[in-house]
């Protein structure tokens, strides 16, 4: 008999993917005031993956827990996660003032927090986005697996269960790779894994009645110290416009001038 799944899905509130980020006037960070935010797209894939596992019914999923750490407005993405199908959620609240003073939690700090949640909530599967689109670190899942001593499969494009083993297909340079790992494990999701569902109005209303627990880093015994400091943030240089050539010979000549050939 397969082991029942108790899934943890971390979600992050980020600037909406359709918004063009702007550097603030002090050139210390990206401007977030008055900017539309939403759930990190890779985390939407993770919620969808967990809900589909429960819908398949094999193995049985007994609980899907969504978690977010950050300012009070992170509650919005947790409500969305529960409207998509998560059973309950935890908001580890970090005040706006603390975020402004210290910056957001770094990947290692998030991994330590998730480790504590896994142990306290007795999770046996963690599904999280391979990266968040604001810092693009792509580190938290790997660090969490290392701290827990669990197997990991990153950038999953397909997930299948074979008893207590999980087969994960991931895209690599020149093809695909399939990994097989026993539970418990950490999986990070990639864009080809699924198409996240929209939260319907009835499910949005139901989500308001689901449990959302507020906690702090201290409740989990996590050190919130930051080890990295952003010195300067700049816009990328503007791309130069292209030029026209009359024929193939002209193109070859131009490429030679540019040192491309």
Automatic annotation (TrEMBL):
Pfam families, sorted: ETF
Cofactor(s) it depends on: AMP; FAD
Main location as per UniProt: mitochondrion
One cellular component (GO) term of this entry: mitochondrial matrix
Listed GO MF terms: electron transfer activity
Record localization: Mitochondrion matrix
Domain Electron transfer flavoprotein alpha/beta-subunit N-terminal: from-to ranges: 27-224
One record GO biological process: amino acid catabolic process
Keyword line: Electron transport, Mitochondrion, Transport
Entry keyword Electron transport: yes
Cofactor: record remark: Binds 1 AMP per subunit. Binds 1 FAD per dimer.
Keyword Mitochondrion: yes
PANTHER family reported for this sequence: ELECTRON TRANSFER FLAVOPROTEIN BETA-SUBUNIT, ELECTRON TRANSFER FLAVOPROTEIN SUBUNIT BETA
Role description: The electron transfer flavoprotein serves as a specific electron acceptor for several dehydrogenases, including five acyl-CoA dehydrogenases, glutaryl-CoA and sarcosine dehydrogenase. It transfers the electrons to the main mitochondrial respiratory chain via ETF-ubiquinone oxidoreductase (ETF dehydrogenase).
Family, per entry: Belongs to the ETF beta-subunit/FixA family.
Assembly notes: Heterodimer of an alpha and a beta subunit.
Protein name: Probable electron transfer flavoprotein subunit beta
